[in-house]
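Below sits our specimen:

——
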Amino acid sequence: VPQVPRFHDELREHLRTESSVLASIRESGDVPDETEEKLKAELDKFLKSFNIEEEKGIAG
């Protein structure tokens, strides 16, 4: 499962660029429904852009 660290790193970076989601969670210490919906939307956006095939050939 060599893509897991890259997925993790890229997801964190993606969420950092959408700082309002993380800032809301950080400030409130909670995930209200509105923030949860934004987080889900950002996750969906990231999943559509993540290319699992990108690392093929690098390790080989």
In short: The chain has a mean pLDDT of 86. The chain is about 70% helix and 0% strand. Helices lie at 3-17, 19-28, 33-49.
